[in-house]
Design a protein that fits this description.
3-stranded antiparallel beta sheet; nuclease; nucleotidyltransferase
């Protein structure tokens, strides 16, 4: 679980996920530090995992288009604000290009 969350955390901005959305998964890490201790996912953690899964399935990596403006979005959240650099490409089916 810890390795999975590490990978998801590093991809979080690209996937468009907030720390708040992942919070239920991080709550599952609380408790005994023993790697062999039993862990179980709460209903909220399962839902957060589904959100992550859908985000991974729906995102495709694209390079920056030098002909398009680069935008900055700062998103406040309950736990930690984050920012994304992106481009908006009207010619694509999914116009959002997260950089």
């Amino acid at each position: 679980l810890q390795k999975l969350l590490g990978a998801v955390s590093s991809l979080r901005p690209f996937l468009g996920l907030t720390t708040e959305e992942l919070h239920p998964l991080f709550e599952c890490l609380k408790g005994s530090p023993d790697r062999t201790s039993n862990r179980s996912l709460t209903a909220e953690a399962k839902q957060a995992l589904q959100v992550c899964s859908k985000a991974v399935e729906s995102r495709q990596g694209r390079k920056r288009n030098p002909e398009l403006q680069i935008h900055l979005a700062v998103v406040p959240s309950r736990f930690q604000p984050f920012a994304d650099l992106f481009q908006w490409d009207q010619t694509e089916q999914d116009p959002l290009r997260v950089l």
